[in-house]
Specification:
The chain is α/β, with parallel strands linked by helices and 218 residues long. It folds into two domains: 1-53; 67-199, Glutaredoxin, CATH 3.40.30. 35% of the residues lie in helices and 16% in strands. The chain contains four helices and seven strands; from the N terminus they run αβββαβαβββα. Strands 1-2-7-6-4-5-3 form a seven-stranded mixed β-sheet. The protein starts with a helix and ends in a 19-residue tail after the last helix. Residues 1-22 are annotated as: Disordered. Keywords: Membrane, Transmembrane, Transmembrane helix. It comes from Streptomyces luteolifulvus.
């Protein structure tokens, strides 16, 4: 039993390290692409060809194309049964859950590479992070400082996670992934580790491997 647990822990550490290396590789590739794009932009200005690119994020886009309801499993995880829109929109979206578990969202994501925020996030940006396979840890004013500090330390060590306060949620501490959510009793609740294990870049991820860097940092 002990050897099996050690094996699982080692496998998880290896997976996280692999994700970290992949993230670093993407960052390097994105920097090269940004430099190349800048050169092309300057060249375009030199020849006088200034073009306006219409974004897919039309301000007239509809709110979240979300319909359905939660189904709670025996493990306490609530899974969304229904539709979660994935359209990029440029305005506020009214979600059916708080924190939201998916739906239409802004084109800019919140950095989610173990990022801990001290202010509430804009949902349309955080939902984009969920689409990239991040787990979002949120808490309200009823959560103890000790639990908040312990969870923050854990998040900082885990790629594809982010954490922020949310005084609109009903429970003190909640964990959210795309299409899934649960409440935990505190930082020492074993369900924290189980949720991370299952949903950090889990099977539910709409865009597996998408970057958690290069977004908004509040």
């Amino acid at each position: 039993m002990g050897s099996a647990k050690k094996s699982n822990t080692a496998a998880r550490k290896a997976r996280i390290e692999e994700m970290r290396r992949a993230e670093q590789a993407r960052e390097r590739r994105n920097r090269f692409l940004t430099i190349g794009a800048g050169v092309l932009a300057v060249a375009g200005l030199v020849v006088g060809g200034v073009y306006v690119v219409k974004s897919q994020d039309d301000s007239s886009a509809a709110d979240a194309k979300t319909s359905g309801h939660f189904v709670t499993g025996k493990d306490g995880v609530k899974t969304w049964k229904g539709t979660l829109g994935r359209t990029h929109v440029a305005r506020t979206v009214k979600y059916q859950a708080e924190p939201p578990v998916g739906g239409d969202h802004n084109k800019a994501w919140m950095n989610c590479n173990g990022d801990v925020y001290t202010k509430a996030l804009t949902n349309v940006n955080a939902v984009h992070s969920l689409e990239h396979g991040a787990v979002w840890v949120t808490y309200n004013s009823k959560a103890s400082k000790a639990d908040v500090d312990a969870l923050a330390a854990r998040v900082r060590k885990t790629p594809y996670t982010l954490m922020s306060p949310d005084d609109q949620q009903k429970d003190p501490i909640m964990l959210t992934a795309w299409g899934s959510q649960r409440t935990v009793t505190g930082a020492s609740d074993p369900n924290v580790g189980k949720f991370f294990e299952q949903f950090v870049q889990g099977k539910q991820t709409p865009e597996p491997g998408a970057t958690c860097s290069g977004g908004l940092s509040q």
